[in-house]
Write a structure and sequence with these properties.
Blueprint: H1 16-23, E1 29-32, H2 39-48, E2 52-56, H3 63-73, E3 81-83, H4 90-100, E4 107-115, H5 120-123, E5 133-134, E6 137-138, H6 143-147, H7 149-159, E7 170-178, E8 188-195, E9 200-206, E10 214-221, E11 224-229, E12 233-238, E13 243-247, H8 253-265
Parallel strand pairs: 1-2, 2-3, 4-9
Antiparallel strand pairs: 4-10, 5-6, 7-8, 8-9, 10-11, 11-12, 12-13
């Protein structure tokens, strides 16, 4: 009533399947920013109706469910885009190109450190936040799998050194998982990862902290160390002592990512 939706001709439905059936022949793209446990059935419903999907991260945290989603995806008319927004960032792409071209020497290690304070309000905002299980279904919500999933995704992007759009595959993981909040899942993780690209990865993330939200990535190469500070700058410290400071231009990465996907589904980009 507040926004006069019916008066403006906006359909109102009690079930998303009814909505998809009514509009499936008119839609160019469907965005799915819903809670994680709803992603798989909603993705399947859209793909079966030959609709392009922009799916919020993470697609799921249950690897068996992910495999089922990938099977569904085989029949997709247009590939689904999972909304890991930082990947589209111009400065990130430029540094990745320089890494792939071996400008800094071989990439040896990638380190990720992240602090993001979360209070009880965050974990009580929904029936699935911080849960391992919901109605006997796996959720596995965690600091790494949800709030800072962007950053973990970025780490594997950096470590994929074979090409510009390569991601490293994980071969083995050593982890320590902790929780300070009264939740089922973990709010603090420490990881050592071996990848197929032979780039070692170290990750430390927590919600159990104070102060501002901050995170940074360190890329250790043969001839330089690169520090990436989100929304701020990239600092390249060369082994001969000189530095490059590359500012990160502010922008709306969500909009840029969706715009890129729209160019893909409209045939303007691959």
């Amino acid at each position: 009533n507040k926004w006069n939706l019916q008066g403006r001709g906006v359909g109102i439905f009690n079930d998303y399947l009814d909505m998809l059936e009514v509009y499936k022949d008119e839609l160019d793209i469907v965005t799915i920013p819903t809670p994680i446990p709803l992603h798989a059935p909603m993705h399947k419903a859209c793909v079966e109706r030959e609709l392009a999907v922009y799916l919020e991260k993470p697609p799921t945290l249950d690897y068996e469910e992910l495999n089922r989603m990938l099977d569904v995806e085989k029949s997709a008319v247009k590939l689904t885009n999972v909304g890991f927004n930082f990947i589209i960032e111009t400065e990130r792409q430029r540094i990745k190109k320089r890494i792939v071209n071996n400008e800094f020497g071989k990439l040896l290690e990638v380190h990720l450190f992240g602090n993001w304070p979360r209070t009880d309000l965050y974990f009580n905002r929904s029936n699935w936040a911080g849960k391992l299980l919901l109605n006997d279904s796996l959720v596995l919500d965690s600091v790494m799998g949800n709030a800072m999933a962007h950053y973990v995704h970025n780490v594997l992007f950096w470590a994929g050194v074979s090409s510009q759009w390569a991601w490293a595959d994980v071969e083995s993981v050593k982890s320590e998982l902790y929780r300070a909040n009264d939740i089922q899942g973990t709010d603090t993780v420490f990881l050592e990862i071996e990848t197929d690209s032979r780039v070692d990865v170290r990750i430390a993330l927590t919600h159990a902290c104070g102060g501002p939200h901050k995170h940074y990535v360190r890329l250790i190469c043969e001839n330089a160390i690169i520090d990436y500070f989100t929304y701020d700058k990239l600092v390249v410290k060369w082994s001969d002592g000189h530095e490059e400071i590359l500012p990160i231009e502010p922008g709306n990465l969500l909009c840029e990512n969706i715009a890129h996907y729209i160019r893909y589904i409209s045939g303007q980009e691959n």
